[in-house]
Design a protein that fits this description.
single chain, Rossmann fold, seven-stranded parallel beta sheet, 33 helices, 52% helix, 9% strand, binds adenosine-5'-triphosphate, RNA binding
């Protein structure tokens, strides 16, 4: 039995020689170990490290994938192993097992594995080891570049890197846009591991003088197919051209497309293809249960509401095809108060808000996240129970990524896909081809809660919400219209009016491209074999539209290449899921801020989102609608350029092409501008004044009084401008204004006449009073004369009196003329003077003038004597 038996002699006694030999061997081994330790202690640290690195590197070649079950089975540095252990990562997943060894050996790797299978660590571990091997320090500059398609994914990767790499001394940075470029530029040069989005990276390459990647050791492309789908093919090419040729490249994704293989050919050297689930029965996690339901478009909102009501304790993600749908339905659902926290994540939010929502949803145990496809890839929200695909994904790959947000790393999860009857056949077929096991389930009609009436009442009270509903409507129709796969997405089969009603709208908004499409006779008619009926095919695009798109796309691309405004990612901030008004207001503000920020933001800051991209090409189809919110955001998304079968390469040489008719820049008419303003729902500042009675008088903008409110409503709900009606309305307005003006003038004249009359009355009153005074004076003097006899001394000096009377009379006259002036009586005639009558002074003067000299019949001397006598006798 083993060792004891060996040490015994033939009689079963222990053999002392053998025992001694064993002891001696052990002892000498211990001694040599001690010696080595002593030697090492004398060595400088760097030397010890270098030796352990060389030992590790020697072991790289000995890696046997089949023997590996734990991270510690790989020859990894102590620092990395410690980081992994501290983060509770011990056992390796299949993709980690198969790729880490290859990457350690310095090979280029193209790795594909199901969602949630641990691809992030599959590249982060080799990243850390690569720099450790080289004893990288901050002075060595950029060593590893990790490119992610979305900001959230980059952020998430950065967080995992921080966790597992915390024992290393490298510096790591996250460059994803949404922040000050200068601020980033100051720090970028000291970063050893840079996690970034492609747009922002290229911008730094173009604009940050001190940024260079000449020392780069490793490039990692996470979700590479998504990066390409988002329209970053050219950006990626430009980035790769700026990188040193001698480097290692790792490329990972859950799905592989032809474009990824093209990129791999371009950027990888003799890559090792690792597709761990290639032979698996299904391409989705085994723990994921997947179902679909078929329902009419107009039922979808009620289905969603009913679903949420019955999953109040769960954590769910609901995927929509456009930002505007998320924006509208988020608000509406907050108001509906289903009894669960609602959050929104889409490409039109500010970066900070996006991060807030991301973190909040990570933390929550039960909540629902309304999201566009920016949340479809790579995001690792813990413990998501349900993924509900409210709108059909554009293809099976998108479905796989969306559904993969649940059932991650050995967890369970459920996915529910909502399909329209017209989408069912094509989509289910595609999914089965991609090895996605989906089963149909049916809605229990008794559990369906109809919310249409509630939505109608919300919209009746809230004009802003109504605008959002209209935009949501157009945006959804457009997203269907722009889908590549016309077998699945047929806009002509959509129940348009019913859909509008289901959103709470009384009338379906005008959708220009639909009208245009309906006017055009279908190009291809297919004879149905069964019924020999002529059926139109799914709508196809006209050459003009293709041309127009081409021109538009070229323009965008050239702007992008020049570093102009980047269309890609009008990213969004999550609306906080709490259903209170404050939240909504906050989001409104943010949206506004976001627009402002976007205007300032440099072109290549962020990454596009799927939802947005779907909307992008619509800019030419229904430009005003697009322009209304955030222009470029929508443009660059996934597969957009393939919508018309265009190759990106064609876009590289736009100048050489003859400018097509449609490529000529449209002149911006006033009507277009007005429409834009209408669509933006700008609220112009109002100055409101009040009459003395307290009625408000709106001065600006002038109130339209001639048109009834109903008519306005009707007009508004159509969502466009009817020029004839507008003219009629203006004419009516004009008439109304003229009538108003006339009334005002008449009122003014009447007022003037009344004033004049009043003034005349006043003047005559005053004259009458003066006359009375004069008469009284004269009466008194007569009386006096009668009572006391004649007293010449009491008589005024006739000369004095005359002059003063004259001046008085002048004064009076002046006064009169003043009064007259005031009364506006400029002409004076006799009759008027008569009317006014003589003044009292005049009358006085007249009286004095009429007094006859007293004839005593005496001589002058006798008269004098008589007067003196009289005076003496009086005194
Ligand atoms: N070795 C491991 N041990 C334990 N957990 C792991 C291990 N590797 C990864 N995980 C966990 O599995 C989850 C999914 O990992 P990861 O996000 O890397 O998946 P993925 O393959 O990149 O998914 P996707 O394709 O959706 O991006 C994460 O929560 C991660 O923490």
């Amino acid at each position: 039995m083993g060792k004891t038996a060996d040490c015994r002699g033939p009689e079963g006694r222990p053999d002392p020689v053998r025992s001694f030999n064993r002891w001696k061997k052990k002892h000498s081994h211990k001694q040599s170990q001690k010696k080595q330790l002593r030697k090492q202690l004398k060595k400088p640290e760097w030397q010890v490290e270098r030796e352990s690195i060389s030992r590790l590197m020697q072991n790289y070649e000995k890696i046997n994938v089949n023997e590996i079950t734990r991270f510690s089975d790989f020859p990894l540095s102590k620092k990395t192993l410690k980081g992994l252990q501290e983060a509770q990562y011990r056992l390796v997943t299949e993709i980690q097992k198969q790729t880490i060894g290859l990457a350690l050996q310095g090979k280029d790797v193209l790795g594909a594995a199901k969602t949630g299978s641990g691809k992030t660590l599959a590249f982060l571990v080799p990243v850390l080891e690569a720099l450790y091997r080289l004893q990288w320090t901050s002075t060595d500059g950029l060593g590893v570049l990790i490119i992610s398609p979305t900001r959230e994914l980059a952020y998430q990767t950065f967080e995992v890197l921080r966790k597992v790499g915390k024992n290393h001394d490298f510096s790591a940075g996250l460059i994803i846009g949404g922040k000050d470029l200068k601020h980033e530029a100051e720090r970028i040069n000291n970063i050893n591991i840079l996690v970034c989005t492609p747009g922002r990276l290229l911008q730094h390459m173009d604009e940050t003088i001190c940024f260079h990647a000449t020392n780069l050791q490793m490039l990692v492309l996470d979700e590479a197919d998504r990066i390409l789908d988002m329209g970053f093919a050219d950006t990626m090419n430009a980035i790769i051209e700026n990188l040193p040729k001698k480097r290692q490249t790792l490329l990972f994704s859950a799905t592989q497309t032809k474009s990824v293989k093209d990129l791999a050919r371009l950027s990888l050297k003799n890559p090792e293809y690792v597709w761990v689930h290639e032979k698996a029965k299904y391409s989705t996690p085994a723990t994921l249960e997947q179902n679909y339901i078929v329902c009419e478009l107009q039922q979808k909102i009620s289905v969603l509401y009913s679903f949420l009501r019955s999953h109040l304790k769960k954590k769910s993600i609901v995927f929509f095809s456009s930002c505007k749908e998320v924006q509208y339905l988020y608000r509406v659902f907050c108001r509906l108060r289903p009894g669960i926290s609602i959050l929104a994540l889409h490409g039109r939010q500010q970066q900070m808000r996006r991060m807030e929502v991301y973190n909040e949803f990570v933390r929550k145990k039960a909540a629902v996240l309304f999201a566009t496809d920016i949340a479809a890839r790579g995001l690792d929200f813990p413990a998501v129970n349900w993924v509900l695909q409210f709108d059909c994904p554009e293809d099976a790959n998108t479905y796989i990524h969306r559904a993969g947000r649940t059932a991650r790393y050995k967890e369970d999860g459920e996915a529910l896909l909502i399909l329209l009857p017209s989408e069912e056949k094509g989509m289910v077929q595609q999914l089965l081809q991609k090895k996605v096991p989906v089963k149909e389930i049916r809605i229990n009609p008794e559990k369906l809660i109809d919310v249409q009436k509630k939505l109608e009442s919300f919209l009746a009270q809230d004009q802003d919400l109504k605008g959002r509903a209209q935009r949501c409507f157009v945006s959804y129709i457009r997203s269907v219209y722009l889908m590549k796969d016309k077998e699945i997405f047929d806009v002509s089969k959509l129940p348009i009016p019913e859909y509008a009603l289901s959103l709470g709208l009384a009338v379906a908004p005008r959708v220009r491209f639909l009208q245009k499409m309906q006017k055009q006779p279908p190009k291809e008619l297919v004879v149905s074999q069964d019924h020999k009926q002529i059926e139109p095919r799914a709508p196809s695009l006209t050459n003009d539209e293709v041309e127009e798109f081409r021109a538009y796309f070229n323009e965008k691309m050239s702007i992008l290449q020049k570093g102009g405004k980047r269309p890609e990612e009008t990213e969004c901030t999550p609306g906080k899921g709490i259903s209170d008004e404050e939240e909504e207001e906050k989001e409104d503000e943010e949206e506004m801020e976001e627009k402002l920020a976007k205007a300032k933001e440099s072109p290549l800051q962020s990454v596009p989102s799927t939802g947005e991209s779907k909307e992008a090409p619509g800019q030419f189809l229904d430009r005003d609608e697009d322009e209304d919110d955030g222009h470029d955001a929508d443009f660059f998304t996934v597969k957009r350029h393939n919508v018309f079968g265009l190759d990106l390469k064609e876009n590289k040489t736009p100048q050489k092409k003859e400018p097509s008719k449609s490529s000529v820049k449209k002149k911006v008419t006033k009507v277009a501008e007005a429409k834009k303003v209408m669509k933006r729902n700008f609220k112009v500042n109002k100055k409101i004044t009040f009459t003395e009675e307290g009625e408000s008088v709106q001065q600006w903008p002038q109130m339209q009084k001639s048109v009834s409110k109903d008519a306005e409503e009707e007009e508004d709900s159509t969502g466009g401008i009817n020029l004839d009606k507008a003219k009629e309305r203006l004419q009516e307005e004009d008439k109304f204004d003229k009538e108003e003006y006339r009334k005002k003038i008449r009122a003014k004249h009447r007022e003037k006449r009344l004033k004049e009359r009043e003034a005349r009355r006043e003047a005559s009153k005053r004259q009458a009073k003066a006359r009375d005074e004069e008469e009284a004076f004269l009466d008194w003097s007569d009386d006096d004369d009668d009572d006391d006899g004649f007293d010449p001394s009491t008589l005024p000096d006739p000369d004095k009196y005359r002059s003063s009377a004259e001046s008085d009379s002048d004064d009076t006259e002046n006064k009169i003329s003043d009064t007259k002036k005031k009364q506006g009586m400029r002409k004076r005639n006799n009759s008027e003077v008569e009317d006014v009558g003589p003044t009292s002074r005049n009358r006085k003067k007249a009286k004095w003038e009429t007094l006859e000299p007293l004839d005593t019949g005496l001589s002058l001397a006798e008269d004098e004597e008589l007067v003196l006598h009289l005076l003496k006798s009086q005194s």
